[in-house]
């Protein structure tokens, strides 16, 4: 399991997860205004074992988090 982070300006993360998590990341990353943080934190909530892999690149706004959850 490895994670590659593109330059912050691109706001993209390429991650190799199990198929279920891959679909989960895809749905969230379709929204370019949401950052890497949203996808990482949501994944951490889904599976606590991924908490150590969380990548925080910017502050998460409550509104963004609600939108991310709604997408699911």
Q: What descriptors fit this protein?
A:
8% strand, globular, two-stranded antiparallel ribbon, 72 residues
Number of strands: 2
Q: How many structural domains in the coordinates?
A: 1
Structural class: mainly alpha
Please give the oligomerization state of what you see: single chain
Mean of the pLDDT scores?
Answer: 49
Low-confidence runs of at least 5 consecutive residues: 5-20, 49-59
End-to-end CA span: 23 Å
Beta fraction = 5-15%
How many helices? The count is 3
Helix and strand element order:
EEHHH
Rg value: 11 Å
Q: So what's the overall shape? A: globular
The share of residues in helices is: 40-55%
* Biggest pleated-sheet summary: 2 strands, antiparallel
Explain what you see.
By secondary structure, the chain is mainly alpha-helical. It has one domain (3-71). The protein contains 3 helices and 2 strands, in the order ββααα. A two-stranded antiparallel ribbon has the order 1-2. A hairpin with a 7-residue loop joins strand 1 (3-5) and strand 2 (13-15). Helix 1 (19-29) runs antiparallel to helix 2 (36-46). The longest helix is centred in the middle third of the chain and has 11 residues, at 19-29. The model is unreliable at 5-20 and 49-59 (pLDDT under 50).
